[in-house]
Amino acid sequence: MFERMLVGKIENRITVGIVCFVGIMVLLGWAAINEGGRMASLEETYHARSIEAGALLFTSNCTRCHGPDGRGLNGFAPGLNNPMIFGVDFYPQATSQIADLEAEQTALKAESGLSQTTDARKAEIKTRLDEIAQKITELDAPRQATLQAAIDKGYDPQRPDRLKNLGWVGTRDSFILTTLIHGRPTSINYWPNGAMPAWSQTAGGPLRMDQLEDLVAYVENFDKGDQWTVDDLFAVNQFAKEPVDPIYKIQAESADLPKPVGTDVTAALDAISGLTGNPDRGSQLYHNQAKTQLLNALPCSGCHTQTANGTGPMADGTDTRVETIRLKEPQFASYTNTQYIVESILQPGAYIVPGFSNVMLPGLGEQMSAQDLADIVAYLESLK
User: Fold this and answer.
1) Is 353 helix (H, G, I), strand (E, B) or coil?
2) Averaged pLDDT, 23-28
């Protein structure tokens, strides 16, 4: 009797063990089957939170130039909530056909200029070039008529993909991230209200890499895929500009320009010591109402607004603050007002005013002459 009871208990334990084992295996199998969905759900949640964080960063750092809705501001920066950023072509067939015709046009013109091309062949080429021009006009006319409102703001319907226009071969994510990291310091020459600064802490900016990635996620979230419409194009306030302004490039190459003052503070102080600064011209340079002797526009007023703190300290009261606050700090005990101002312009990372970040454009000394610097200093020293 006892033995049968003992055997029964053992059998029950075995049965329970088998059931538990099978249950565990079923659970593990279910988890394995659903792991992909679970990870996808986690990734989706993480991405959504990244977009939300990017939206906050965009509002606090980017709207002043790119607009509160990301559609750009005239004279400040292009729209990012913009079909062009995402390579949307509303007339792809016309774009392709015109591109082919323009390639043929270029080849024919080159052939016509060869010394061995006969007069008869040149006549044939001329006839064909006239036909091509007429065909391009016919293909482009409907597109021009429909998109004229966007064209008036700088949109080029024949070049509707921003990344291709720049020759970018990477992903859109990498393009946006790279632009955020390094900024666009040379854009001061075609954006009159200031260049885009570097935003990464590795380049002297205020944001960590994870914050930059959140901004990328937010900008990418503007994409509507195949739902973009012409009305979205018309809603863009400012389209991108070419990285090099051809007018200023020609002027710079042909003009007899003075040397830049450079970034050496001591040498710059020596250079301007014998010059008379013009505060009126300095004000024009500071507020982007005139270009430097090197034919550059300066971004000063884009961050240093006149009567209130912006990205940088306000302009009004500059000389008084330098005299009564900055020069009272131990490291500036031997400085003059002029020395402090010159160092702030030429080496903006040498000292960061408390409460602000180092987003000031580096290399300004390469954009101006000694006289330009003397004029700006004279203007700032007039702001009591």
Assistant:
1) coil
2) 63
The one-character DSSP state at 200 is B
Report the percent of the chain where pLDDT is more than 70.
82
Per the structure block, which two tokens stand in for 347?
């080496």
- Provide the 3-class DSSP secondary structure of residue 207: strand
Residue 268 contacts residue 342 (beta carbons within 8 Å): yes
The answer to whether 273 touches 266, Cβ cutoff 8 Å, is: no
The Cα–Cα gap between 102 and 132 comes to: 8
Tell the burial category of 145 from Cβ atoms under 10 Å away from its Cβ (0-12, 13-18, 19+): exposed
Cα-only R_g, the chain: 31
Q: How far apart are CA 133 and CA 255, in angstroms?
A: 36
Q: Does the pLDDT value for residue 207 go beyond 70?
A: yes
pLDDT tens across 266-308, in order? 999 999 999 999 999 999 999 878 888 887 778 787 678 888 8
Q: Which residues lie closer than 8 Å to 110 by C-beta, 6 or more apart? A: none
372: Cα separation from own chain's centroid: 27
- Which runs of consecutive H residues, i.e. helices, occur in 113-188? 119-151, 162-165, 172-182
CA separation for the pair 197, 77 (Å, rounded): 12
The SS3 assignment for 18 reads helix
Q: How far apart are CA 366 and CA 264, in angstroms?
A: 11
The C-alpha atoms of residue 63 and residue 221 are separated, in whole angstroms, by 16
At residue 81, what are phi and psi to the nearest 5 degrees? Answer: -85, 75
**Which position has the token pair 């004029």?**
375
The answer to whether 372 touches 354, Cβ cutoff 8 Å, is no
Residue 213: both structure tokens together: 């990635």
Taking the C-alpha atoms of residue 80 and residue 286, their distance in angstroms, rounded to an integer, is: 27
Instruction: Check pLDDT > 60 for residue 38.
Output: no
pLDDT at 182 exceeding the cut of 70 = yes
Q: Which two structure tokens, joined as six digits, stand for 215?
A: 């901004």
Identify the DSSP state of 355.
T
- Does this model's pTM top 0.70? My answer is no
Structure confidence by residue, pLDDT tens digits, 143-155:
999 999 999 988 9
